[in-house]
Amino acid sequence: MFLQALSLLFAAVLSLGGAYRPAWALPDESAGDYVILLHGLGRTHRSMHALEERLAGEGFQVINLDYPSRRYPIEQLAGILKQRIEQNCTAEEKRIHFVTHSLGGMILRSYIQQNRPERLGRVVMLCPPSSGSELVDVAGASWLFEWLNGPAGSQLGTDSSSFPQRLAPVDFELGVITGDKSLNPFYSLFIPGKDDGKVSVDRAKVAGMADFLVLPHSHTFIMSSPETAGQVLYFLRNGRFLKNGREQHD
Fold it and tell me: Among candidates 3, 240, 43, which has minimal Cα distance to 231?
């Protein structure tokens, strides 16, 4: 009897598509607004797994996108983002929020500037090179840098012709979180002031943002921190960050 029941259970699992997926990963049309996650340069959707799990557990319908960050320039990556949004965000009653890491923020700003969605919600950017990175100024012209980082990586310098510098100020609800802990002291030698190992604290800021927060994390791992996830969730719900563990009022 036990073996028969086990066999029936196994057959049922196969009929549902085979591989097991945890509850937070299953699509839920009754969940809250969409939240689209965009990973950084040279990373994959797996780097945003902790945020995906936390936000889905809080009732958002999370879409953790993967995209070929090292293959195309930012303009083409923004076009890919447009296609993915049209394919995945079909419920017209739901707003579309975004959480990005590093390069993902520049792709999103490019997309919004050209194809602003009518249901655009709130945005949190983690360690965005909002006005570029000095590391690209130093190494961006080398073949090795381009081989490692692709055309999009070479667009992230700080001069006036760089892609970030040519973007318009933001005109949507944006919260920026950046880090001030570097895992690479050599990289930090080329970055003025405090930095996260790849982007300075000052260059993460952007005109028009609603709030700004510095956390003691590195560029590489800030998206995996429970503290970061809590602040992201708070901004998506309230349009501001929780400072020093309490509400801030002007």
Answer: 240
Q: Which pLDDT score is estimated for 245?
A: 54
Integer Rg of the chain from CA: 20
* pLDDT tens-digit series, residues 129-184: 999 999 999 987 888 888 999 999 999 999 999 999 999 999 999 999 999 999 99
On whether the CB atoms of residues 229 and 221 are closer than 8 A, the answer is: no
Q: Which CATH number fits domain 26-238: 3.40.50.1820, 3.30.450.20, 1.20.272.10, 2.30.110.10?
A: 3.40.50.1820
**What is the CB neighbour count within 10 angstroms for residue 16?**
10
In the chain, what's the furthest Cα-to-Cα distance?
Answer: 73
pLDDT at 142: 86
What average pLDDT does range 96-106 have in this prediction?
98
Contacting residues for 174 by C-beta, under 8 A, at least 6 apart: 122, 123, 124, 125, 206, 208, 209, 210
